């Protein structure tokens, strides 16, 4: 996809990966619609993009509320007339052992990370079907492939995102719409204001990436129509090893985390 003048809607855009992704698409000449709960942060980002010569619409949204998601979609369509790219990025994590996890945290993660994404897809993709083109990017996680100790609740939401994405990709393929999952490892963002960074082994923390790297991967995935992308890409062989030797991989992962 040539991104010049394309309309890109990004959820979870008030910080971290969403913020950097908006800047990356704006740099390619796309027209932005940014959405999140924090209206002040959205206005700050929209102002920055506008100052740099871009076009950006800030739309507050709560992805756990169907009416809020429908209202967001309606405002974007009224302003731009279309949506070419939907980036489902809203999400958060709380890490705790499964037997000790707070059920309210488990439910909220599923509401935001999974059902919020479904709400956005159901609100936006029908308009892409009428356009006969579009691209959906679902920000999942390496945790959607590897459920490490204390990450069970969060991983469950990302396993769900990956499964939904695989089904959706085939359901709408013949309508000219692409679906991508972007799977980051640990990223240095406000995500860890809620998630416990200390639950990740120190050696893994050394490989933490910056959000702009994920943003560049998202843009590349849309431009080159890549169905699945890992950040960093060097993690892909590890996932292949898991597929070939799941028991050995699980034992190694468990030991790795116990020695964190």
Task: Give a brief description.
The protein has helices at residues 16-27, 39-51, 66-80, 103-131, 152-172, 202-205, 211-224, 236-244, 246-258; strands at residues 7-11, 31-36, 55-60, 85-88, 134-139, 177-184, 228-231.
Written account of the structure:
Keywords: Oxidoreductase. By secondary structure, the chain is α/β, with parallel strands linked by helices. It has a single domain (7-258), classed as Rossmann fold (3-Layer(aba) Sandwich). 50% of the residues lie in helices and 15% in strands. It is built from 9 helices and 7 strands, in the order βαβαβαβαβαβααβαα. It has helices at residues 16-27, 39-51, 66-80, 103-131, 152-172, 202-205, 211-224, 236-244, 246-258, and strands at residues 7-11, 31-36, 55-60, 85-88, 134-139, 177-184, 228-231. It has a 7-stranded parallel beta sheet with strand order 3-2-1-4-5-6-7, sandwiched between helices. Helix 1 (16-27) crosses helix 7 and helix 4 (103-131) packs parallel to helix 5 (152-172). It starts with 6 loop residues before the first strand and ends with a helix.
